[in-house]
Structure formats: C-alpha cells, structure tokens
Write a structure and sequence with these properties.
about 180 residues; alpha+beta; five-stranded mixed beta sheet; two-stranded antiparallel sheet; 6 helices; elongated; SMP domain-containing protein; repeat; LEA_SMP_dom; LEA_SMP
Amino acid sequence: MAQPQPRRGGDEGLQAQGQGGKAPAPAQLEPIKYGDAFPVKGELAGQPIAPRDAAAMRSAEDSVPGVQVPQESGGGFSAAAFMESAAAYNQAVGAVGPGQASDAVAKNGVNVTQDAVPGGRIVTEFVAGQVVGQYAVAEAPPQQHDGAGHKAAGNEGGAGHGDGGAHVGRAGATAARRD
C-alpha cells in the first residue's frame, strides 16, 4: 500500500509546528559568557559578561597612558568595547542586572599591562588573571629640537618612558606599564 504524500503549501507547516497552528515557544536566549568570546578557562568561562566588568575594563584601558585601543583607532579589537556590547545584550535578555559584576571579576579584578619592546610596546588585557586581549602599539619617533628651538626628527629614544598605572575599586581595574 502506498503512503499518502504531504501536500505542498498545505498543512505541513502546521504539522511541523506540532501545536495545532500555534507557533513554538521562543527559545530561552542564552547570555554571552566569557568562554564564548575569549580563550579563558575555569570559573570565568561560564560566567556572563556583566556591566561592571565592562566598565572596569574600559576604565583600565583608559587609565594606561598612551594606550591606543585598536578598534577605536580604525581597526583591531578592544576587549572593553566587546564587553560593553555583550553586557548590554546580557542585560537585555535578563541574565545580568544593571551595575552587576561577575563573581570572578569581583574577586580578581581586571587589569591592563604594557611591556616595552623595541619600537613600541605590547598591551595585554586581563580579566580575573586570564588574558582576553593583546596587541602591539608602535611608538612614534621622538621629536628633537635643534639649537634654534625648531623640531628636528631624531632617531634616538625608544619605547616605554616612565611608569603609569591605575587601580579601580573592588570589581576592579588595574593598569600598569612595565619598562
């Protein structure tokens, strides 16, 4: 005996929905977790990115003197910019509340370091001790003044002058420059 064939454009859509014409319930929206976006492990990987986490990273990026965040200068990646977007999404889906920090960030903080290398520096961004971003920043050649007070291009100098750093609160951001 032959099996009846489904009709095109007929009621096969209703059969697929399985609820007599009612649309299926929308899937629960999942938050963006650290492990979804960054190569992190352990407790941090399973935690949703929260608004205070993003604010702490933004503060750390902004507090390191001379850091030019690649994404904001026309390309590259900014951990803070991504975290701000993820936190806004997570808040919209109800996974985190306004002003909330993740447990890992509340305990271990956020920091940004700079390490001098010939011709520039390497900037590394951390959340709860795990790297979430790293990029190189080139140093512009220093300007020298001639005897008449005019600027003259020089080839002396190098990366990493001085020390800069900041620490922000318990949910914390820390920024440091290492020469």
